[in-house]
Specification:
The complex is a heterodimer of chains A (376) and B (461).
Chain A: E1 5-6, E2 9-12, H1 16-27, E3 32-35, E4 51-52, H2 62-72, H3 75-79, E5 86-87, E6 90-94, H4 97-112, E7 119-122, H5 123-129, E8 139-143, E9 147-148, H6 151-164, E10 168-170, E11 175-181, E12 184-189, E13 192-196, E14 198-201, H7 207-213, E15 221-230, E16 240-243, E17 249-252, E18 258-261, E19 265-269, E20 274-276, H8 279-292, E21 300-311, E22 318-321, E23 327-331, H9 341-354, H10 367-375
Parallel strand pairs in A: 1-13, 2-3, 2-14, 3-10, 6-16, 14-23
Antiparallel strand pairs in A: 4-9, 5-9, 6-8, 7-8, 11-12, 12-13, 15-18, 15-19, 15-21, 17-18, 19-20, 22-23
Chain B: E1 4-10, H1 14-25, E2 30-33, H2 55-58, H3 60-63, H4 65-74, E3 78-80, E4 83-88, E5 93-98, E6 101-112, E7 116-118, E8 131-133, H5 134-144, E9 151-156, H6 158-170, E10 176-179, H7 183-190, H8 193-196, H9 200-215, E11 220-221, E12 224-230, E13 237-242, E14 245-250, E15 253-258, E16 260-262, H10 265-269, E17 274-277, E18 282-285, E19 298-300, H11 310-327, H12 333-360, H13 365-368, E20 376-378, E21 383-384, H14 385-393, H15 399-406, H16 419-430, H17 434-437, E22 449-450, H18 451-456
Parallel strand pairs in B: 1-2, 1-6, 2-3, 6-19, 8-15, 9-10, 9-15, 10-11
Antiparallel strand pairs in B: 4-5, 5-6, 7-16, 12-13, 13-14, 17-18, 20-21
Helix pairs in contact in B: 1-4, 1-11, 6-9, 7-12, 11-12, 14-16
The chains are: A alpha/beta (376), B alpha/beta (461).
Chain lengths: 376, 461
C-alpha cells in the first residue's frame, strides 16, 4: 500500500469516548489520529440528556461511575471548559408502596456492594425537594453530588481540547477495511491508509461493524433514542428526576426549558445515519413525565429529536482489550455512556500505556458475548 | 374528525382548497386541515366572512377567492378549521391538534399546501415593537379591519405595493414608502417583460398601484440601499441610505416586506428533499410536475413547493389532487392527463410573469445577509449575525452544527423565522453556495404542542 501513514494510536469514532481517549493519550505524549465517518459528536454524544449520574447504575458500572463523577467535578482541568456541568441531586421517585420497596431493595444491594451514595428519602423529604412532584409519590432514592452537563458544550470542549493537544482529527472518513498482521493494525478510511500498533474502536452504534473488522463479534442493536424539550417556564426543579417502574429522565435546564427523555425509541437508519421519530413512543414518554409532574400538562413541547446509540444485549458497554493484541474496544454504552466518557478515555489510555487499570472492567470484556454464543 | 382518509390536504389556501375539491369531486374521501377559522389561506383570508372592510379597500381580486370557498363548502370535503398540523411522517401519518386535543390521522395520500411565508428582513431594529412584516399587517386588516398608524413601508415586491395601496385606499396617512428594489434589477428583468405581457392585466394592475402611490403625495423613495430602524422601546424613525447619503423619516409603525418564500417546515420534517433555488433565493421542494415529492405518498402543492402566485397555486392544487387520485386508484393515467390539460395551460400562461417578477423583485444581498454584525438573526434565542460568523470561524460548517455553537434555530419557531438568513450567512462566511450549506434539520412537532395533548395520544389507538 502506498502512502500509508503511521500513528502511535488510531481511534475510530469521533464521539465523546473517542475524543476522551484521544485527549488522555495525547496528554501522555502519544501521537493520535482520530477517524470519524461523519462529523464530530454527530449522534449519541450530542443527542443525549446530559446526565452525569451514579444513581441506578448496574452494579459492575458503579466503580467507573464513581470515578467518572470525580472527574466531572473538575472537568475544567481535563478540557479547560466547564461543559455546562452543574452539580445537582438525582432522584428516582417511587409512586406506591411496591415501588418504594423496590427502591429499598436496590439501596440495600448497592450498600452491600460497598457503596453508600444511594440513600432512601421519605415522602416529606421528597415533596420538600420536589415541590411540584405528583402528590401520590411516596418517597424516593437520592444521590447527592451527581449532576448534568450540556452535551453540545461537552462535545465542543472535548473536540477543541483534542485539537489543541495535536490530535489529528479526520472527519468524513468512514473506515472500510481493517487488517492485523505481526502486531500491526492497518486501517483504510476515506481514501487514506494508516498503520498503527494501537487501534481503538469507539464507534458507538457502529462499534459492532468495527469490532467485526477487528475479529471480535459483538451483537449490537442500533437504537434511535428520542428526547424532547419544552418552551421556557418558571424555574421549579433543580434535581434530575426519574421514576421507579417507568423509563423517564426529567430535568429543567438553566434557561427554564425542560428536557424529557427516557430511552424511548424512534427508528434508526444506520447506513445514512438518520433517525425518524415515533410519535406514539414520544406520547408514552410524555405520559410518564406528566404522571410525575402534573404541571407539565399545559407546557408546550417545542422540539423533539433523536440520536443513534448502540445497545448491547446486557445493556453494558464493551470496554477493554480486543481479541488481538494492540486492539481496544470502547463502545456499546447502551444509552448511559455520556457521564462515563471522561473516565473511560483514561482507562483506555492506561491499558495502552501501562497495560493495566486500577478500575474493575472485567464485566465489560468483549469476549462475554462470544462465551454466551458458544454456550447456546 | 375521521382517523383515516383517502386524501388529507394540509392548508386551505388556493392550492389546498382546489386540491380538496378536485379530490372529492372524483370520489375520494378528503380531510382538509387548516389552522384558520375559515377557508382562504393568507391571500383569501376570511374572504367568506369579510364584510366590514369591503372591496373599495381590499380590491376586487381578493374577492375572487370567494368562488373557490363556495365550491369547497358545497363539496363532500371534511374541512376542519382551527386544526394545527404539527407532524407529517414518511409513513403518511399526520399529527394534528384541534380544540386542545391531539389526534394521529392516517391517509393514503397527503397533499401539503402550506403556502408561503414572508422572507425574513433582518435589518437593525427589526425586532422593535411597532415593526412587523407587511403581510402580518395585511392579516390584521383582512381578519379584523385593523389599520396601523402612520406606517413606513420598507422593501420590495408586489405585496408591499398592494398593502400600501390598500392603506392609501383606506385613507390612512402613510409616512413613506422606501423601495429597496436594486436599480440593477430592472435592466435584468426588462428582457423578460415582453413574455410576461401574456398576463398584461396583472402588470397594469401593479403599475396602477405604483402610480396611485406616487401621485397621492406620499413620500416614495426608490433605490434605498440600507435601512436602520431606531427607537428606545418602540419604532420611532427609519434611517435610509440612497446613493451613499443617509436620510431619516419619523414613523409610528414600520411594515417590512421583501417577498415571500415557501413555508417548508412541515415538508422538511416529513423528510421531503429540497434544493436551493437561485432564482427565488429560497428552498424549493424537489417535486415532479404533479407536485409529487421524494417521500412516498406525499405531494406538495402551491407556493409551498416554490412561489407561483395564487392562480398557479390553485392550478397546482388541482394537479396534485389528480395525481393523488391516480395513485390511490380513482383515476387512470389518461383520465388524469386529460383533466389536467386546462390546469397546465394556466400554469404556462402565468410562468413568464413569475420569471419577470422573480427577477425584478429579487431582494438585495445586503437585506438578506445583514451587513451590520449586531443585527439579530434568531429572534427566539437572540443570536446576532456576528455570533453566527464567529461560530463559523470556530469551525461550524452548517446550520445543524450552529445550534450547538449558538442555539440559533432552537427556539419555538424551529428556525422558521431565521433559517434562510442563517444558511445565507454561513454560506457567505465560508464562500460556498447555500445549496452546499443546507438547511437546519427539522423535526416534529413543527409547531409547539402541549405535553398533555401528546400524552393523551398514548391512550388512543
Amino acid at each position: 500500500m502506498t502512502g500509508a501513514q503511521t500513528a502511535d494510536a488510531v481511534i475510530v469514532g469521533g464521539g465523546l469516548h473517542g475524543l476522551s481517549s484521544a485527549i488522555h493519550l495525547a496528554k501522555a505524549g502519544v501521537e493520535v489520529t482520530l477517524l470519524e465517518k461523519d462529523r464530530i459528536g454527530r449522534h449519541a454524544s450530542s443527542a443525549n440528556a446530559g446526565g452525569v449520574r451514579r444513581l441506578g447504575r448496574a452494579l459492575p458500572e458503579i466503580p467507573i461511575a464513581v470515578a467518572a463523577i470525580e472527574l466531572w467535578h473538575d472537568i475544567e482541568s481535563l478540557v479547560d471548559e466547564t461543559c455546562g456541568f452543574c452539580e445537582s441531586v438525582q432522584i428516582k421517585v417511587a409512586e406506591d408502596a411496591e415501588g418504594l420497596n423496590a427502591l429499598q431493595i436496590r439501596s440495600q444491594t448497592v450498600c452491600d456492594y460497598g457503596f453508600a451514595h444511594e440513600e432512601m428519602i421519605d415522602a416529606d423529604t421528597l415533596h420538600s425537594l420536589l415541590p411540584e412532584v405528583a402528590k401520590h409519590c411516596v418517597g424516593g432514592l437520592i444521590v447527592k453530588g451527581d449532576g448534568h452537563a450540556d452535551p453540545f458544550a461537552t462535545v465542543r470542549a472535548f473536540h477543541r481540547k483534542a485539537l489543541s493537544l495535536g490530535v489529528r482529527i479526520i472527519e468524513g472518513a468512514p473506515v472500510t477495511q481493517i487488517t492485523y498482521l505481526n502486531g500491526k493494525w492497518s486501517v483504510k478510511a476515506g481514501g487514506l491508509a494508516f498503520n498503527t500498533p494501537h487501534l481503538i474502536n469507539a464507534a458507538g452504534a457502529w462499534g459492532d461493524q468495527i469490532s467485526g473488522m477487528m475479529g471480535d463479534h459483538v451483537p449490537i442493536q442500533a437504537q434511535a433514542l428520542m428526547l424532547m424539550i419544552t418552551e421556557r417556564i418558571k424555574p421549579f426543579l433543580s434535581a434530575v428526576v426519574g421514576a421507579e417502574g417507568r423509563t423517564l429522565s426529567f430535568k429543567q435546564l438553566d434557561n427554564g426549558t425542560v428536557l424529557i427523555g427516557g430511552g424511548y425509541q424512534g427508528r434508526a437508519e444506520l447506513e445514512h445515519g438518520t433517525t425518524t421519530l415515533d410519535m406514539r413512543q414520544l406520547a408514552a414518554n410524555a405520559t410518564a413525565a406528566q404522571a410525575i409532574f402534573p404541571l407539565m400538562n399545559q407546557t408546550r413541547i417545542t422540539r423533539a429529536w433523536a440520536g443513534i446509540e448502540g445497545v448491547t444485549p446486557d445493556r453494558m458497554p464493551v470496554i477493554g482489550h480486543a481479541g488481538q493484541s494492540g486492539g481496544f474496544h470502547l463502545f456499546g454504552f447502551s444509552a448511559h455512556g455520556f457521564a462515563l466518557a471522561p473516565i473511560c478515555g483514561r482507562v483506555i489510555a492506561e491499558l495502552i500505556l501501562s497495560q493495566q487499570t486500577a478500575l474493575p472492567i472485567q464485566a465489560f470484556a468483549v469476549d462475554r458475548f462470544q462465551r454466551v454464543a458458544e454456550v447456546t | 374528525m375521521k382517523s383515516r382518509t383517502d386524501i388529507a390536504v394540509i392548508g386551505a389556501g388556493p392550492a389546498g382548497m382546489a386540491a380538496a375539491v378536485m379530490a372529492a369531486d372524483h370520489g375520494a374521501s378528503v380531510l382538509l386541515l387548516d389552522e384558520q377559522a375559515a377557508a382562504g389561506g393568507q391571500i383569501y383570508r376570511a374572504v367568506g366572512s369579510q364584510k366590514a372592510t369591503g372591496s373599495a379597500i381590499l380590491g376586487t381580486e381578493y374577492y375572487q377567492g370567494g368562488a373557490l370557498v363556495d365550491r369547497l363548502a358545497a363539496s363532500t370535503v371534511e374541512h376542519v378549521t382551527g386544526a394545527t398540523v404539527w407532524h407529517v411522517s414518511d409513513q403518511r401519518e399526520i399529527g394534528v391538534s384541534v380544540d386542545g386535543a391531539a389526534e394521529l390521522i392516517n391517509a393514503d395520500h397527503i397533499i401539503i399546501a402550506t403556502g408561503a411565508q414572508e422572507r425574513p428582513f433582518p435589518v437593525p431594529g427589526w425586532t422593535l415593537p411597532g415593526v412587523m412584516n407587511a403581510g402580518a399587517a395585511q392579516i390584521l386588516l383582512k381578519s379584523s379591519g385593523v389599520l396601523l398608524p402612520y406606517p413606513v413601508f420598507v422593501g420590495t415586491g408586489p405585496l408591499l405595493y398592494l398593502i400600501a395601496h390598500q392603506y392609501l385606499r383606506a385613507g390612512v396617512p402613510i409616512a413613506a414608502v422606501l423601495d429597496t428594489t436594486p436599480r440593477s434589477n430592472l435592466c435584468q428583468a426588462l428582457g423578460l417583460l415582453p413574455a410576461a405581457f401574456r398576463e398584461a392585466g396583472q402588470i397594469w394592475k401593479g403599475l396602477g398601484w405604483l402610480k396611485d402611490l406616487r401621485t397621492s403625495g406620499t413620500t416614495f423613495k426608490t433605490g434605498v440601499e440600507d435601512i436602520r430602524i431606531n427607537g428606545a422601546d418602540h419604532a420611532e424613525s427609519v434611517e435610509y441610505k440612497i446613493a451613499g447619503h443617509w436620510h431619516s423619516c419619523s414613523a409610528e409603525s414600520v411594515l417590512l416586506h421583501q417577498g415571500v418564500v415557501p413555508n417548508v417546515n412541515l415538508a422538511m420534517a416529513a423528510g421531503c428533499k429540497h434544493h436551493w433555488s437561485d432564482a427565488q433565493l429560497c428552498w424549493h421542494a424537489q417535486v415532479d410536475d404533479w407536485g409529487y415529492s421524494t417521500v412516498e405518498g406525499v405531494s406538495i402543492a402551491g407556493d409551498g413547493a416554490g412561489i407561483v402566485g395564487a392562480d398557479s397555486a390553485q392550478a397546482l392544487g388541482g394537479l396534485a389532487a389528480l395525481d393523488a387520485l391516480y395513485r390511490i386508484g380513482k383515476l387512470s393515467i389518461p383520465e388524469r392527463d386529460k383533466i389536467a390539460m386546462p390546469l397546465r395551460k394556466i400554469m404556462s400562461r402565468q410562468q413568464p410573469l413569475r420569471r419577470f417578477l422573480d427577477r425584478l423583485y429579487q431582494p438585495a444581498e445586503q437585506f438578506r445577509i445583514p451587513a451590520d454584525p449586531a443585527t439579530l438573526v434568531c429572534r427566539c434565542e437572540e443570536v446576532s449575525a456576528a455570533e453566527i460568523r464567529e461560530a463559523v470561524s470556530l469551525g461550524c460548517q452548517g446550520p445543524n452544527q450552529l445550534k450547538s455553537f449558538t442555539r440559533a434555530g432552537m427556539g419555538p419557531c424551529q428556525g422558521r423565522l431565521c433559517g434562510l438568513t442563517v444558511s445565507a450567512i454561513i454560506a457567505d462566511e465560508l464562500g460556498r453556495p447555500v445549496q452546499d450549506i443546507g438547511a437546519a434539520r427539522l423535526r416534529s412537532p413543527v409547531k409547539p404542542l402541549e405535553l398533555g395533548q401528546l400524552a393523551a395520544l398514548a391512550d388512543k389507538e
